[in-house]
Amino acid sequence: MNTxxxxxxxxxxxxxxxxxxxxxxVGFPTETVYGLGANALDGDAxxxxxxxxxxxxxxxxxxxxxxxEEIAPLITGGVSPAARALMDAFWxxxxxxxxxxxxxxxPEVSAGLSTxxxxxxxxPAARALxxAAQRPIAAPxxxxxGRPSPTTARHVLDDMDGRIPLILDGGxxxxxxxxxxxxxxxxxxxVLRPGGxxxxxxxxxxxxxxxxxAVMRPLKEGEQPRSPGMKYRHYAPEGDLTIFEGENGAVAxxxxxxxxxxxxxxxxxxxxxxxxxxxxxxxxxxxxxxxTAESVAAxxxxxxxxxxxxxxxxxxxxxxxxxxxxxxxxxxxxxxxxFHIEKV
Length: 344
Ligand code: AMP
Ligand code: MG
Prior knowledge:
binds magnesium ion, binds adenosine monophosphate
Protein backbone atom coordinates (compact mmCIF):
# COMPACT_ATOMS: atom_id res chain seq x y z
CA MET A 1 0.00 0.00 0.00
CA ASN A 2 1.22 3.49 -0.88
CA THR A 3 0.91 5.91 2.06
CA UNK A 4 -0.01 9.50 1.16
CA UNK A 5 1.03 12.37 3.43
CA UNK A 6 -1.19 15.43 2.87
CA UNK A 7 -1.38 18.76 4.68
CA UNK A 8 -4.70 19.38 6.42
CA UNK A 9 -7.11 21.06 3.96
CA UNK A 10 -10.82 20.79 3.15
CA UNK A 11 -9.91 18.41 0.30
CA UNK A 12 -7.65 16.12 2.36
CA UNK A 13 -10.19 16.03 5.21
CA UNK A 14 -12.93 15.03 2.74
CA UNK A 15 -10.70 12.28 1.32
CA UNK A 16 -9.89 11.05 4.84
CA UNK A 17 -13.59 11.01 5.75
CA UNK A 18 -14.28 8.83 2.68
CA UNK A 19 -11.55 6.39 3.70
CA UNK A 20 -13.00 6.08 7.23
CA UNK A 21 -16.52 5.54 5.87
CA UNK A 22 -15.20 2.80 3.58
CA UNK A 23 -13.64 0.94 6.53
CA UNK A 24 -10.04 2.19 6.07
CA UNK A 25 -7.50 3.82 8.39
CA VAL A 26 -6.25 7.42 8.56
CA GLY A 27 -3.42 8.96 10.61
CA PHE A 28 -4.54 12.36 11.91
CA PRO A 29 -3.39 15.10 14.31
CA THR A 30 -4.97 15.78 17.69
CA GLU A 31 -3.91 18.17 20.45
CA THR A 32 -2.37 15.21 22.39
CA VAL A 33 -0.58 12.92 19.88
CA TYR A 34 -1.33 11.69 16.34
CA GLY A 35 -4.18 9.16 16.20
CA LEU A 36 -4.78 6.17 13.92
CA GLY A 37 -8.50 6.35 13.19
CA ALA A 38 -11.20 3.97 11.95
CA ASN A 39 -15.00 3.87 12.02
CA ALA A 40 -15.72 3.09 15.69
CA LEU A 41 -19.00 1.36 14.79
CA ASP A 42 -17.38 -1.16 12.40
CA GLY A 43 -15.57 -4.05 14.12
CA ASP A 44 -13.77 -5.10 10.91
CA ALA A 45 -12.40 -1.59 10.37
CA UNK A 46 -11.27 -1.43 14.00
CA UNK A 47 -9.49 -4.79 13.69
CA UNK A 48 -7.31 -3.21 10.99
CA UNK A 49 -6.01 -0.72 13.59
CA UNK A 50 -4.74 -3.58 15.75
CA UNK A 51 -3.07 -5.18 12.70
CA UNK A 52 -1.40 -1.96 11.52
CA UNK A 53 -0.05 -1.18 15.01
CA UNK A 54 0.74 -4.72 16.09
CA UNK A 55 -1.36 -3.85 19.16
CA UNK A 56 -2.34 -6.56 21.66
CA UNK A 57 -6.05 -7.38 21.21
CA UNK A 58 -6.84 -6.87 24.90
CA UNK A 59 -5.90 -3.15 24.90
CA UNK A 60 -9.09 -1.11 24.23
CA UNK A 61 -9.34 1.96 21.98
CA UNK A 62 -10.70 5.41 22.71
CA UNK A 63 -13.74 6.57 20.70
CA UNK A 64 -13.61 10.17 19.48
CA UNK A 65 -16.66 12.39 18.93
CA UNK A 66 -17.07 15.98 17.76
CA UNK A 67 -20.25 16.88 19.67
CA UNK A 68 -22.09 15.77 22.80
CA GLU A 69 -25.13 14.51 20.90
CA GLU A 70 -22.98 11.70 19.52
CA ILE A 71 -22.33 10.24 22.99
CA ALA A 72 -25.78 9.05 24.15
CA PRO A 73 -25.99 6.15 21.64
CA LEU A 74 -22.50 4.92 22.64
CA ILE A 75 -22.97 4.60 26.43
CA THR A 76 -25.50 3.24 28.94
CA GLY A 77 -26.58 4.53 32.33
CA GLY A 78 -26.36 8.22 31.48
CA VAL A 79 -23.89 10.87 32.59
CA SER A 80 -23.22 11.30 36.34
CA PRO A 81 -22.97 14.81 37.87
CA ALA A 82 -19.19 14.38 38.22
CA ALA A 83 -18.84 13.32 34.58
CA ARG A 84 -21.03 16.26 33.57
CA ALA A 85 -18.79 18.69 35.46
CA LEU A 86 -15.68 17.25 33.80
CA MET A 87 -17.24 17.41 30.33
CA ASP A 88 -18.24 21.04 30.88
CA ALA A 89 -14.78 21.95 32.15
CA PHE A 90 -12.46 20.04 29.79
CA TRP A 91 -14.24 19.12 26.54
CA UNK A 92 -13.26 19.62 23.87
CA UNK A 93 -9.76 18.75 25.08
CA UNK A 94 -7.21 16.14 26.16
CA UNK A 95 -9.52 14.10 28.42
CA UNK A 96 -11.07 10.62 27.98
CA UNK A 97 -13.96 9.48 30.17
CA UNK A 98 -14.75 5.79 30.78
CA UNK A 99 -18.50 4.97 30.68
CA UNK A 100 -20.47 1.70 30.61
CA UNK A 101 -20.79 0.96 26.88
CA UNK A 102 -23.85 0.38 24.72
CA UNK A 103 -24.20 -2.39 22.12
CA UNK A 104 -23.31 0.15 19.39
CA UNK A 105 -19.66 -0.18 20.46
CA UNK A 106 -18.23 -3.37 18.96
CA PRO A 107 -16.13 -5.65 21.20
CA GLU A 108 -13.04 -4.84 19.09
CA VAL A 109 -13.14 -1.24 20.38
CA SER A 110 -13.63 -2.13 24.05
CA ALA A 111 -11.37 -5.21 23.85
CA GLY A 112 -14.20 -7.20 25.40
CA LEU A 113 -14.68 -4.86 28.39
CA SER A 114 -18.17 -3.62 29.34
CA THR A 115 -16.94 -0.02 29.25
CA UNK A 116 -15.84 2.45 26.57
CA UNK A 117 -13.50 5.43 26.65
CA UNK A 118 -14.93 8.57 24.99
CA UNK A 119 -13.05 11.74 24.11
CA UNK A 120 -13.97 14.97 22.38
CA UNK A 121 -10.71 16.35 20.95
CA UNK A 122 -10.17 20.09 20.48
CA UNK A 123 -7.84 19.95 17.46
CA PRO A 124 -9.72 21.50 14.51
CA ALA A 125 -8.47 18.84 12.05
CA ALA A 126 -9.57 15.99 14.33
CA ARG A 127 -12.99 17.57 14.72
CA ALA A 128 -13.31 18.21 10.99
CA LEU A 129 -12.36 14.59 10.26
CA UNK A 130 -15.01 13.20 12.64
CA UNK A 131 -17.59 15.43 10.96
CA ALA A 132 -16.45 14.42 7.48
CA ALA A 133 -16.64 10.73 8.43
CA GLN A 134 -20.10 11.30 9.95
CA ARG A 135 -19.24 8.62 12.52
CA PRO A 136 -17.41 8.38 15.83
CA ILE A 137 -13.76 7.50 15.24
CA ALA A 138 -11.92 4.85 17.27
CA ALA A 139 -8.28 5.85 17.50
CA PRO A 140 -5.24 4.84 19.52
CA UNK A 141 -1.94 6.61 19.10
CA UNK A 142 -0.60 6.15 15.53
CA UNK A 143 2.69 4.46 16.49
CA UNK A 144 3.69 0.82 16.06
CA UNK A 145 3.01 -0.84 19.41
CA GLY A 146 5.91 -0.35 21.85
CA ARG A 147 7.27 2.77 20.08
CA PRO A 148 6.86 6.26 21.53
CA SER A 149 3.59 7.92 20.51
CA PRO A 150 3.91 10.13 17.40
CA THR A 151 3.79 13.88 17.85
CA THR A 152 4.48 14.80 14.20
CA ALA A 153 3.17 13.45 10.89
CA ARG A 154 6.75 12.37 10.11
CA HIS A 155 6.72 10.06 13.18
CA VAL A 156 3.50 8.50 11.87
CA LEU A 157 5.06 7.95 8.46
CA ASP A 158 8.16 6.39 10.06
CA ASP A 159 5.94 3.80 11.79
CA MET A 160 3.04 3.35 9.34
CA ASP A 161 4.53 3.76 5.84
CA GLY A 162 2.95 1.14 3.58
CA ARG A 163 0.41 0.11 6.24
CA ILE A 164 -2.23 2.85 5.87
CA PRO A 165 -3.46 4.87 2.87
CA LEU A 166 -3.37 8.43 4.29
CA ILE A 167 -1.76 10.61 6.95
CA LEU A 168 -3.03 14.15 7.54
CA ASP A 169 -0.21 16.53 8.48
CA GLY A 170 -1.33 19.19 10.97
CA GLY A 171 2.12 20.04 12.36
CA UNK A 172 3.47 19.12 15.80
CA UNK A 173 1.01 18.26 18.61
CA UNK A 174 0.52 20.87 21.30
CA UNK A 175 0.21 18.74 24.46
CA UNK A 176 2.55 15.93 23.37
CA UNK A 177 1.37 13.22 25.79
CA UNK A 178 -1.81 11.14 25.43
CA UNK A 179 -5.14 12.16 26.97
CA UNK A 180 -5.95 11.91 30.67
CA UNK A 181 -8.08 8.75 31.09
CA UNK A 182 -10.65 9.09 33.89
CA UNK A 183 -12.97 6.32 35.06
CA UNK A 184 -16.32 7.93 35.88
CA UNK A 185 -18.22 4.68 36.48
CA UNK A 186 -17.72 4.89 40.29
CA UNK A 187 -18.55 7.53 42.91
CA UNK A 188 -15.26 9.42 42.69
CA UNK A 189 -13.53 10.09 39.33
CA UNK A 190 -10.37 8.01 39.13
CA VAL A 191 -7.39 8.89 36.95
CA LEU A 192 -6.22 5.72 35.17
CA ARG A 193 -3.67 7.52 33.00
CA PRO A 194 -2.41 11.06 33.67
CA GLY A 195 -2.30 13.60 30.82
CA GLY A 196 -2.83 17.27 30.03
CA UNK A 197 -5.86 17.51 32.33
CA UNK A 198 -4.23 17.18 35.75
CA UNK A 199 -5.57 15.75 39.05
CA UNK A 200 -5.44 19.30 40.43
CA UNK A 201 -7.69 20.52 37.58
CA UNK A 202 -10.09 17.57 38.02
CA UNK A 203 -10.45 18.15 41.76
CA UNK A 204 -11.21 21.81 41.13
CA UNK A 205 -13.88 20.99 38.52
CA UNK A 206 -15.79 18.28 40.40
CA UNK A 207 -14.64 18.36 44.02
CA UNK A 208 -12.84 15.04 44.28
CA UNK A 209 -10.36 12.84 42.43
CA UNK A 210 -8.45 9.62 42.98
CA UNK A 211 -5.29 8.67 41.12
CA UNK A 212 -5.02 4.95 40.42
CA UNK A 213 -2.08 3.37 42.24
CA ALA A 214 -0.73 1.83 39.02
CA VAL A 215 -0.03 5.31 37.56
CA MET A 216 3.36 5.67 39.25
CA ARG A 217 4.51 2.13 40.01
CA PRO A 218 4.89 -1.13 38.11
CA LEU A 219 2.00 -3.61 38.29
CA LYS A 220 2.30 -6.24 40.98
CA GLU A 221 2.57 -9.93 40.08
CA GLY A 222 -0.88 -11.04 38.82
CA GLU A 223 -2.47 -7.57 39.31
CA GLN A 224 -5.29 -6.78 36.85
CA PRO A 225 -4.93 -3.13 35.82
CA ARG A 226 -8.09 -1.02 35.50
CA SER A 227 -6.60 0.38 32.32
CA PRO A 228 -5.31 -2.53 30.22
CA GLY A 229 -2.71 -0.28 28.56
CA MET A 230 -0.80 -0.17 31.88
CA LYS A 231 0.25 -3.78 31.33
CA TYR A 232 2.41 -2.98 28.37
CA ARG A 233 5.90 -1.54 28.26
CA HIS A 234 5.00 1.57 26.31
CA TYR A 235 7.37 4.24 25.13
CA ALA A 236 10.45 2.05 25.34
CA PRO A 237 13.62 3.49 23.82
CA GLU A 238 16.11 0.92 22.51
CA GLY A 239 18.80 2.09 24.95
CA ASP A 240 18.45 1.53 28.69
CA LEU A 241 17.08 4.53 30.53
CA THR A 242 17.70 5.38 34.21
CA ILE A 243 16.01 8.28 36.01
CA PHE A 244 17.69 10.08 38.92
CA GLU A 245 15.55 11.73 41.56
CA GLY A 246 16.69 14.10 44.32
CA GLU A 247 18.23 17.50 44.93
CA ASN A 248 19.61 19.11 41.70
CA GLY A 249 23.30 19.05 42.65
CA ALA A 250 23.21 15.44 43.90
CA VAL A 251 21.34 14.30 40.78
CA ALA A 252 23.88 15.99 38.50
CA UNK A 253 26.80 14.42 40.39
CA UNK A 254 25.26 10.93 40.16
CA UNK A 255 24.52 11.35 36.46
CA UNK A 256 28.04 12.62 35.70
CA UNK A 257 29.56 9.60 37.46
CA UNK A 258 27.38 7.10 35.60
CA UNK A 259 27.94 8.83 32.27
CA UNK A 260 31.70 8.81 32.76
CA UNK A 261 31.64 5.10 33.66
CA UNK A 262 29.83 4.17 30.41
CA UNK A 263 31.88 3.23 27.32
CA UNK A 264 32.94 6.26 25.22
CA UNK A 265 30.20 7.61 22.94
CA UNK A 266 27.50 5.24 24.27
CA UNK A 267 25.72 7.55 26.71
CA UNK A 268 23.54 10.66 26.76
CA UNK A 269 21.99 12.83 29.46
CA UNK A 270 18.44 14.21 29.53
CA UNK A 271 18.45 17.45 31.51
CA UNK A 272 15.96 20.22 32.16
CA UNK A 273 16.63 23.46 30.27
CA UNK A 274 19.02 25.57 32.33
CA UNK A 275 20.81 22.52 33.77
CA UNK A 276 23.10 21.88 30.77
CA UNK A 277 26.04 23.65 32.41
CA UNK A 278 26.01 21.06 35.22
CA UNK A 279 27.25 18.48 32.72
CA UNK A 280 30.16 20.30 31.08
CA UNK A 281 31.13 18.88 27.68
CA UNK A 282 29.08 15.68 28.05
CA UNK A 283 26.33 14.90 25.54
CA UNK A 284 23.12 16.50 26.82
CA UNK A 285 19.65 16.55 25.27
CA UNK A 286 17.33 19.18 26.78
CA UNK A 287 14.02 17.95 28.21
CA UNK A 288 11.84 20.54 26.46
CA UNK A 289 12.38 24.15 25.44
CA UNK A 290 11.60 25.68 28.85
CA UNK A 291 11.73 24.45 32.43
CA THR A 292 7.98 23.74 32.66
CA ALA A 293 6.20 20.38 32.74
CA GLU A 294 4.12 21.48 29.71
CA SER A 295 7.24 22.12 27.67
CA VAL A 296 8.82 18.80 28.72
CA ALA A 297 5.58 16.95 27.81
CA ALA A 298 5.41 18.55 24.36
CA UNK A 299 8.96 17.46 23.50
CA UNK A 300 9.21 14.10 25.30
CA UNK A 301 8.22 11.55 22.65
CA UNK A 302 10.19 13.24 19.85
CA UNK A 303 13.20 13.10 22.18
CA UNK A 304 12.74 9.38 22.88
CA UNK A 305 12.55 8.72 19.12
CA UNK A 306 15.70 10.77 18.56
CA UNK A 307 17.62 8.71 21.13
CA UNK A 308 16.73 5.60 19.10
CA UNK A 309 17.71 7.28 15.81
CA UNK A 310 21.09 8.16 17.30
CA UNK A 311 21.48 4.66 18.81
CA UNK A 312 22.22 5.93 22.31
CA UNK A 313 22.85 2.88 24.50
CA UNK A 314 22.76 4.38 27.99
CA UNK A 315 20.42 7.24 28.86
CA UNK A 316 20.58 9.06 32.19
CA UNK A 317 17.70 11.43 32.90
CA UNK A 318 16.88 14.00 35.52
CA UNK A 319 13.45 13.47 37.12
CA UNK A 320 10.72 16.08 36.63
CA UNK A 321 8.59 17.43 39.47
CA UNK A 322 5.40 15.36 39.36
CA UNK A 323 2.90 18.12 40.13
CA UNK A 324 0.50 19.25 37.38
CA UNK A 325 1.37 17.91 33.93
CA UNK A 326 4.61 16.65 35.51
CA UNK A 327 2.66 13.57 36.68
CA UNK A 328 1.99 12.62 33.03
CA UNK A 329 5.63 13.24 32.15
CA UNK A 330 6.92 11.08 35.01
CA UNK A 331 4.34 8.36 34.22
CA UNK A 332 5.63 8.12 30.62
CA UNK A 333 9.30 8.54 31.53
CA UNK A 334 9.11 5.94 34.34
CA UNK A 335 7.55 3.40 31.98
CA UNK A 336 10.15 4.16 29.31
CA UNK A 337 12.73 3.45 32.02
CA UNK A 338 10.93 0.24 33.07
CA PHE A 339 10.83 1.96 36.51
CA HIS A 340 14.62 2.16 36.86
CA ILE A 341 14.54 5.16 39.17
CA GLU A 342 17.45 5.91 41.50
CA LYS A 343 16.90 8.17 44.49
CA VAL A 344 20.05 10.13 45.26
P1 AMP B 1 -4.01 4.93 23.26
O1 AMP B 1 -5.23 5.28 22.49
O2 AMP B 1 -2.96 4.22 22.47
O3 AMP B 1 -3.52 6.13 23.97
O4 AMP B 1 -4.49 3.92 24.36
C1 AMP B 1 -5.74 4.08 24.99
C2 AMP B 1 -5.58 3.94 26.47
O5 AMP B 1 -6.84 4.09 27.10
C3 AMP B 1 -5.03 2.59 26.88
O6 AMP B 1 -4.10 2.75 27.92
C4 AMP B 1 -6.25 1.85 27.36
O7 AMP B 1 -5.93 0.85 28.29
C5 AMP B 1 -7.13 2.97 27.92
N1 AMP B 1 -8.55 2.63 27.78
C6 AMP B 1 -9.29 2.67 26.66
N2 AMP B 1 -10.54 2.22 26.89
C7 AMP B 1 -10.58 1.88 28.19
C8 AMP B 1 -11.60 1.33 29.04
N3 AMP B 1 -12.80 1.01 28.58
N4 AMP B 1 -11.28 1.10 30.34
C9 AMP B 1 -10.06 1.41 30.81
N5 AMP B 1 -9.05 1.92 30.06
C10 AMP B 1 -9.31 2.15 28.76
MG1 MG C 1 -0.80 4.35 22.52
